[in-house]
Amino acid sequence: MAESGRLSPGGSRELGRALSATEPSPALETGQGCRAGAEVRVLVVNTGGTIGMMPQSEGLAPEANKLAGALAKIPILHDVTYAKETKLYDRLALGDDTLVLPLSKENKRIIYTIMELSPLLDSANMTPADWGTIAKCLQANYEQHDGFVILHGTDTMAYTASALSFMCENLGKTIILTGSQVPIYELRNDGRSNLLVSLLIAGQFVIPEVCLYFYNKLYRGNRVTKVDTESFKAFSSPNLPPLANAEVDITINWETVWRSNTTKKFEVHTNMNSNVGLLRIFPGITTAAVKAFLQSPMEGVVLETYGSGNAPNNRPDLLEELKQATDRNVVILNCTQCLRGSVSLVYATGKTLLDAGVIPGADMTPEAALAKLSYILGKPQLSLAEKRKMLSENLRGERTVVPIGTRITLKDSKFIQGIAKYLYISCKEELEAIRDALTPALACAAAKTGDLDALKALQNLGGNLSSEDYDGRTPLHIASCEGNLEIVTYLLESGATVYAKDRFGATPLMNAIRFRYYNILGLARSPGKCSSQQTIFSLKGTALCILALKGDIDGLRAWHLAGVDLDQHSYDGNTPLRVAKIMGRTEVAAFLKSLTKNDLQKSSATRVILKTPN
Fold it and tell me: Is the dihedral of CA 85, 91, 97, 99 positive or negative?
């Protein structure tokens, strides 16, 4: 058969033999395979910052189109041998801006592509418009990649991380911001380690948050603040422990990970309101200064107050200016100037601010509070009351919420207590270890039998419903195989990830495709957590052609419901429609033709102002 996909004489018989010689096993039907399961795709968005800076006459400055070439020469950041032996660039049609890490402990190959903001920026020059450009880049490439790393300068990294955490709505994949204190080109630097570990986490773990990684710690992006200009330990998360620690091993604190409880599609909100600001209270601050700051066009203010949210209550002139501003619909959010702690109403000086219409900001950082204000005020469809209500809610894990009511504890579980008694243990840490060891098996068993009460009980005990069993399968994998819509719905709404891959590289969506559960396919795609991305559906062109050859319309329909473009080319350049015509599968050909052009292209990405290095 010719490489162009045209038929040579006797080509019909050759096509039949070529496709039927590959038995449509579950691995091929779902796009699995050893190499497909081991390879994951990560997009690196280079916005600039110290990590890629070079000495210039005026000082350190970012240099375009240099980073990818430099990283390709570093063995720990690019495996040249693997790229050549597997014909990586030809096989995936990739350019020189794509690199691959050596094999990780998790037996995965992380393939990462570098895209650059144009022009590259010192983070001191970052603006909300640049946040929007980054967000659009994430949206445009969301379906083609398993995770994302954003290279960014440290000065405003906490602001960008906070902003993106709100702008990325219904997020189901890992986004990590990182950078360095010393350029990666210098002999002794922190950039290589920060980039390497960020790639490993983004490629190997599904942490559906906007995170920030720096100096062995992975933080929630909207919980950090820069605390040091001269140390590699530049950031701190004063009111929330790290999401992960990267010491000898990478250890994820799954109990801390924030999970979206929605089944809505991933999208980005880029209409950020720029009429917001930070106002820091200090002893002797004048009324004129406060009045001037609160004038139009100001619409939202983060008021940085003393201690637990206090301001002078012996300054009626000052309080009157705040009251007049809130009466003009200026939204004021109260945050503490302290690095650690929360705003409370213990003191009378704090209560007076509440009476003036100021909203308590709990333990949000000023960066997160400012980003949250900009995000919420950028939603014109909301009323003022709805905006104030949202500011008091925990949208992305940006503030600590004290649980209301009694939570079930490990001591309430007779089953776990029985095991603890048998093993002669009683401390909290050991009980949690038992729970974590039992959760994968118990949750998967409950998913198989459809025991919703058991899953709820495990979740109430703090169990991770996205935990994997010995085969790498999660409860969502099991429920998708069983076709249990109720369990799938509950797991998705509880934040279970659809991107988890078992040891064969299969995702829950692949399981639903294999067993033709159309209702689950429709539900699982809805959050934008599932996609038709190349990394999940490798070999799908050949698999689709095999289904066309067999006349399996139901199988093709399952792939279509999963969001896959059925106009895919197999290894020999043929498409399912061409195979159906050649083999006389008229019903299959009619089905494929019935799919409108809009249906086939509705998941195509939008263009953004980014460029790939030359």
Answer: negative
- How many angstroms separate the CA atoms of 458 and 490, rounded? 13
Positions marked catalytic: 50
What do you get for the CA distance between the two ends of the chain, in Å?
35
**Domain shared by 317 and 381, yes or no:** yes
Domain that holds residue 428: 410-601
Q: Which CATH number is 353's domain given?
A: 3.40.50.40
Cβ density class 586-613: b for 16+ within 10 Å, e for less? eebbebbeebeeeeeeebeeeebebeeb
Contact 328, 320 (CB under 8 A): no
17 found inside a domain: no
With respect to residue 18, please indicate whether it lies within any of the assigned structural domains. Answer: no
The answer to the question of residue 396 being in a domain is: no
3-state secondary structure 534-578: CCCCCCHHHHHHHHHHHCCHHHHHHHHHCCCCCCCCCCCCCCHHH
Q: Are 345 and 311 in contact (CB under 8 A)?
A: no
Distance between CA atoms of residues 303 and 506, nearest Å: 49
**Within a domain: 447:** yes
**Nearest CA-CA partner of 60 in 212, 185, 230, 196:** 185
Looking at the structure of the chain, the number of domains it has is: 3
> Tens digits of per-residue pLDDT, 19-74?
444 444 443 333 333 333 478 999 999 999 999 998 887 788 888 889 999 999 99
Average pLDDT over residues 595-610: 44
Please calculate the CA angle 436-438-439 and round it to the nearest 5 degrees.
65
* Total-model pTM: 0.75
Pick the last residue of a domain from 391, 421, 441. Answer: 391
Same domain, 342 and 443: no
